[in-house]
Amino acid sequence: MPTPFIPFTMRATVREEHKRSFRTDIERLTGGHRGWAPLDVVKSTNTQAVLRGAIAQSVHTATDASLARYLQDRLVADNDIHLDLTVCIGH
After folding, report:
1. How many helices (H) and strands (E) does the chain have?
2. Distance CA 55, CA 24 (A)
3. CATH number of 5-89
4. 36-71 residue pLDDT tens
5. Dist CA 20 CA 3 (whole Å)
6. What does the alpha-carbon distance between residue 12 and residue 23 come to, in Å, rounded to a whole number?
7. How many CA atoms are closer than 13 Å to the CA of 24, on its beta-carbon side?
8. Segment (H or E) for 41
């Protein structure tokens, strides 16, 4: 049975100590072949980016906050990308 994917919108905000790498980190987010959450940039500045994506439904997609925590942890673990995230599921 196919796994349903949940669409989400994510706002990524630069952390002060990672300001120099923010643009590169956003390019790495969208340029990688991330099967667990493909992302597209909607809008981006030097300090914030709005992205859209989809992720397989799981315990992490129960709330906006739980998905934001999951994505933050995953980005640090997989790519050493440190961003503050807010997520809105279903948009």
Report:
1. 2, 4
2. 23
3. 3.30.70
4. 778 889 999 999 999 999 999 999 999 999 999 999
5. 38
6. 11
7. 8
8. strand 39-44
67: its two tokens: 């998905």
Q: Which of 29, 75, 74 is nearest to 49 (CA)?
A: 29
Report long-range pairs for 16-21 (Cβ below 8 Å, ≥24 apart).
17/82, 18/82, 18/83, 19/47
- What global pTM score does this model have? 0.84
3-state class (DSSP) for residue 62: coil
User: Can you tell me whether residue 13 is helix, strand or coil?
Assistant: strand
What one-letter code names the amino acid at 46?
A: N
Nearest to 33 by CA among 79, 76, 77: 79
Question: What are the structural domain ranges in the chain?
Answer: 5-89
Tell me the three state secondary structure of residue 34.
coil
Q: How buried is 43 (Cβ within 10 angstroms: 0-12 exposed, 13-18 middle, 19+ buried)?
A: exposed
What is the C-alpha to C-alpha distance for residues 66 and 69, in angstroms, rounded to an integer? 5
